[in-house]
Amino acid sequence: MEQRTVEYKDYKVVVAEATVRMGMKHTMLVSEGVRRDATEKDEVIDKLIAVYTYSACIAATVEHDGFKEWPVPLEDFLLFPEGFVVDWERAAYELNPHWMPTAPEEEDTEPKNPSAQPGKPTLTKGS
Question: What is the DSSP annotation of 56-114?
């Protein structure tokens, strides 16, 4: 199992390619983040961090040092320096690219047959 170490001052995390259990932990953390109430701008930002960043960092970590509590509560995680979290998140997603969020595909609004009209049958040769 491939691993990467990320260090910042007194903090150290070892991030790994996910096992099935780690993958389910990631899914549960994403789900918890999605269920967070968010109406104010800062709450929306915190929710996005919970869903995309916190879930990957926590679930992919197999060793840690320097933290008062593990898993780090989201409220504490939000106060870490951005550079540390960016490196941590990058390692988590590089080792687990299947966790990477993807944008929904745009719907194909063009008809496959330009002469076809929605709701009307199209005749083709051999029919």
Answer: HHHHHEEEEES-SSSSPPHHHHTTS-HHHHHHHHHHHHHH-GGGS--PPPPP--S-SST
